[in-house]
Model the fold of this input.
Amino acid sequence: MRILAFDTSTDACSVALCVDGERLVDHAVVPRAHAQRLLPGIRRLLAEAQLSPGQLDALVYGRGPGSFTGVRIAVSAAQGFAWGAGIGTLGVSTLATIAQGCRREHGDTDVLAMLDARMGELYLGRYREGGAGLMTLDGAERAVAPARAGIGGLPVGATLAGSGAEALGDVDPGERLLRAGQLPHALDLLDLAAPAVRAGHLQDPALAQPAYLRDKVALTEAERGIDSSLGTMRS
Done:
């Protein structure tokens, strides 16, 4: 299989190319520079593998949740690139990718993947190891306030991973591992997508869609409000 994968949902701009089992990577933490780095990274990997876009079998993209701008960059790039190459696409959850990274790098088998969603919320999804070493979703991904995230009720062995772990503030993680710096990596996109790609479960590029988990991007001025007693603005 020849699969191109990328994710721009967080501060990481991550690209990976799999060519018959050999994997090439272009991964960097570049906040607000994804649009400048993504396509050059793709071109570099294709040139290194001596492939043209039309020789690929599939394109896998990080569908979110995450930064609204970053998710849109990934989806629009996937649509344009795959349409031009005449190949199908597959979207993979950013939270699943973070959990799979914890499995690959640290051997974690029970991960609460979370991203800071701003506006006082977290993007949250619990993943546990399933077959073939792949992390599978337990329940549903959702956007919730930290107080409703159910942190205290999780098993002690669950790892808290992603930028949302920092947003928990005063919530005591107990004996759980914290991996707040865990970012999605395109290698994990490749692993998660491989079974579906082999089975031919690809979409037309026009059907590539983001997964925001909520439709609202920001609070209005009135919703933010000013706390007169503290003189601070709610986040």
Observations:
- Confidence is low (pLDDT under 50) at residues 218-235.
- The longest strand covers residues 110-118.
